[in-house]
Amino acid sequence: MTVRIAMWSGPRNISTAMMRSFENRADCRVIDEPFYAAYLARTGLDHPMRAAVLEFQPQNWAEVVAGLDALDGPLVYEKHMTHHMLPGFGLDWSAGRANAFLIRDPAEVLASYTVKRAAVTLDDIGVVRQRELFEREADRLGRAPPVVQGADVLADPRGMLQALCAALGIGFDAAMLSWPAGRRDSDGVWAPAWYDAVERSTGFEAPREREAPTLPDELRRIAEAARPHYEALRAHRLSPA
To answer: Do residues 177 and 18 make contact, with C-beta atoms less than 8 angstroms apart?
Structure first.
């Protein structure tokens, strides 16, 4: 039987590092943002390497789901961006996954996102949609699904990964704590535009002490609009094992 994990994150979190962590398990295969092309095709948005992404993946959400369901192995880890799940994209398939949610303070997300892409909206950072997906899954389960704060993983990788694995109903593997540097065949075609830091990494780096980012007014308004949704998720975050 294949255990399928869907990890729901917004952009500019440690989502790719988490994918690296799971991929370093001998029993796990990973899939990187499978709905990205479908999202770009539906929205018409101009993202870095847009044409390559559209060629790389199916552009129909149902075809994406069929491809996900065809993946086998003991453990399959799906890295999903919440903002990719547009209205009209079906979600019934997610009931066949162990769903978890990876969060980051929206001010930090925005400060990082605008380094890569100048224009940004509330929808682009996916926090509102993340809360909607969380509440949908909580209603289905009758309890809160696992929520992981990226900064908590960086501060205590072993403790947080042990807690996450327990919440997902799988065993912890110490191989998740480090990985070889470099690109992976499993990385999305967009890796050259977004993955420079994670390609240099060999594990979770301890968080650096820094002041809260100072945002221009337009971004500050977006952060303030996102904060209640982030805080609602943060209230359920896991503690280290």
So the answer is: no
Tokens 């499993």 locate to 186
Closest-CA residue to 127 (of 16, 18, 13, 19) = 13
Q: At CA 176, angle to CA 170 and CA 182, rounded to 5? A: 140
For the chain, what is the domain count? 1
Q: Taking a C-beta distance cutoff of 8 angstroms, is the pair 141, 197 a contact?
A: no
CA distance 89 to 41: 12
pLDDT digits (tens, 9 = 90+) for 106-155: 999 999 888 877 789 999 999 999 999 999 999 999 999 999 999 999 99
Cβ-Cβ contacts under 8 Å for 201 (sequence gap 6 or more): 17, 20, 179, 181
pTM of the model: 0.96
For residue 68, is it within any domain? Answer: yes
Return the pLDDT at 90. Answer: 97
User: What CATH number is attached to the domain comprising 39?
Assistant: 3.40.50.300
| Per-residue pLDDT, 207 | 78
Kindly state whether residue 239 falls inside one of the protein's structural domains.
Answer: no
- Of 107, 109, 49, which Cα lies nearest the Cα of 81? 109
25: containing domain: 3-234
Which of 22-26, 115-119, 195-199, 209-213 is predicted least confidently? 209-213
Q: Is 240 a member of any domain?
A: no
- The reply to whether 109 falls in a domain is yes
Q: Is residue 80 a contact partner of residue 19, using CB atoms and an 8 Å limit? A: no
50 burial via Cβ count (<10 Å: 0-12, 13-18, 19+): middle
